[in-house]
Structure prediction request, 177 residues.
Amino acid sequence: MSDAAEVVGDGKVVSIEYVLTDPSGEELDRSGETPMAYLHGSHNIVPGLEEALHGKTVGDSLRVEVPPGKGYGEKGKTKPQRVLRSHFPPDAPVEKGAQFLMRGQDGQPFPIWITKVMGREVYVSAEHPLAGVTLCFDVTVRAVRDATDEERSHGHVHGPGGHHHHGDDDDDDGEEE
Ligand code: ZN
Prediction:
């Protein structure tokens, strides 16, 4: 366990099990059957959790309280924007709480969430639904490995427990997300 290969640091793929609750103890999220894998140092997870995991090793368990400023941000920083339903794919699940990836003018994808649907008008916000919430993580480090070159260049993990932004019809050739 003292092997440096198993220490959480930049460029490592880290697999964690976690339970996320709000300060009142209500569960908001938890890892699935497969521990969640993320690329450390690439902002795949909220900054407060990433900082707390830095230097930890396989088997370490910790409780981390992350204030909004190091979580999903403060609430009320951005106003919802109105877009037309027709801007979404016809078969998309356009409903309150749904998340979509938009492409900015610089080509970089960024997430938005639907806050309200009124007929043909859809209100979206770049504000995460958990903005303003203090996040309480009970987290255990299950595995640490070196990232592949491809993962490093993409800035996220491939394979079990990793991101699923690469669609089924996507041959994973590079630039998306
Ligand atoms: Zn990728």
User: Anything to note?
Assistant: The chain has two domains: 4-73+130-154, 81-125. The beta strands are 12-21, 27-30, 36-39, 61-66, 81-84, 99-103, 109-118, 121-125, 135-146.
